[in-house]
């Protein structure tokens, strides 16, 4: 099935995803530094993130898990000139590639890349940091429950939270799989279930060039 999913993603992309030199450069530079683009969102998924930001006229975006900043560029593309994007990366070597990619992409919105364990970075933000309108959680899956709670501390009514990789090719319902990353996703579903701070929440399975995975999407009450 994987080949058909990849071919269909190519078909979708060739019709609906405009060529963008900045994104091509990011992908190229990422591979040159020995990182795998497989961990980045697919182009049609990047477009979905962009559209969620546009639909809701978001101005302040938080990304937890920069990796090489491919998704960061998609998020930033959706922002107006007076927008602001904070992206947090835990691994210094990845952050270096990300910083290069962000500089090369020459986006016209303010992008801050902070390096450190995202939970620590979020806890150390100044108390007067305005809430974020859109939050994309895409870092170490074992920490998703903590990232969700900390995100909620930096959200307002109507903030949209998107969590990447919540299906993991079905591993989340395989009881034999007790990897910390999978346990973290299961705990996240438990936390999302009837969360008192959330208005609504769903999860969608996705198939495509990145295999079988999924997004969870929540709106803050
Ligand atoms: C992995 C992480 C991701 O965020 C992703 O989108 C795909 C894969 C991983 O760690 O395997
Ligand atoms: Mg991901």
Which short descriptors sum up this protein?
seven-stranded mixed β-sheet, globular, 221 residues, Rossmann fold, binds 3,4-dihydroxybenzoic acid, binds magnesium ion, alpha/beta
Report what the structure shows.
The structure is a single chain. The protein has about 220 residues and is α/β, with parallel strands linked by helices. The protein has one domain: Vaccinia Virus protein VP39 (Rossmann fold, 3-Layer(aba) Sandwich), CATH 3.40.50.150. Helices cover about 40% and strands about 25% of the residues. It is built from eight helices and seven strands. The protein has helices spanning about 1-15, 20-30, 45-55, 70-75, 90-105, 120-125, 145-155, 180-190; strands at about 60-65, 85-90, 110-115, 130-135, 155-165, 200-210, 210-220. The chain has a seven-stranded mixed β-sheet, sandwiched between helices. Strand 1, helix 4 and strand 2 form a beta-alpha-beta unit. Helix 2 (about 20-30) runs antiparallel to helix 5 and helix 3 (about 45-55) runs parallel beside helix 4 (about 70-75). The protein binds 3,4-dihydroxybenzoic acid and magnesium ion. Magnesium ion (MG) binds near residues 164 and 165.
- How would you characterize the largest beta sheet? 7 strands, mixed
| Mean pLDDT over the residues | 97
Which CATH-level-2 architecture?
Answer: 3-Layer(aba) Sandwich
- Separation, N- and C-terminal Cα atoms: 39 Å
Order of helices and strands: HHHEHEHEHEHEHEE
Task: Flag low-confidence runs.
Answer: none
Protein name: O-methyltransferase
Keywords: Methyltransferase, S-adenosyl-L-methionine, Transferase
InterPro entries: Cation-dep_OMT, SAM-dependent_MTases_sf, SAM_O-MeTrfase
GO molecular function, one term: O-methyltransferase activity
């Amino acid at each position: 099935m994987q080949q058909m999913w990849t071919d269909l993603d190519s078909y979708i992309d060739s019709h609906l995803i405009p060529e963008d030199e900045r994104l091509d450069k990011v992908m190229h530079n990422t591979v040159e530094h020995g990182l795998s683009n497989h961990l980045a969102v697919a182009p049609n998924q990047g477009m979905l993130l962009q559209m969620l930001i546009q639909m809701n006229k978001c101005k302040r975006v938080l990304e937890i898990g920069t990796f090489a900043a491919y998704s960061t560029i998609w998020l930033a593309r959706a922002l107006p000139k007076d927008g602001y994007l904070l992206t947090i990366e835990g691994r210094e070597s990845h952050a270096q590639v990300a910083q290069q990619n962000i500089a090369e992409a020459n986006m016209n919105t303010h992008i801050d890349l902070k390096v450190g364990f995202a939970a620590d970075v979020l806890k150390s933000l100044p108390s007067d940091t305005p809430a974020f309108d859109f939050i994309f959680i895409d870092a170490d899956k074992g920490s998703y429950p903590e990232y969700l709670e900390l995100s909620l501390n930096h959200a307002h009514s109507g903030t949209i939270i998107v969590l990447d990789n919540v299906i993991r090719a079905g591993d989340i319902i395989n009881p034999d799989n007790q990897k910390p990353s999978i346990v973290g996703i299961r705990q996240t579903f438990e936390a999302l279930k009837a969360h008192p701070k959330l208005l609504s929440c769903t999860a969608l399975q996705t198939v495509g060039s990145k295999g079988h995975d999924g997004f969870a999407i929540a709106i803050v009450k």
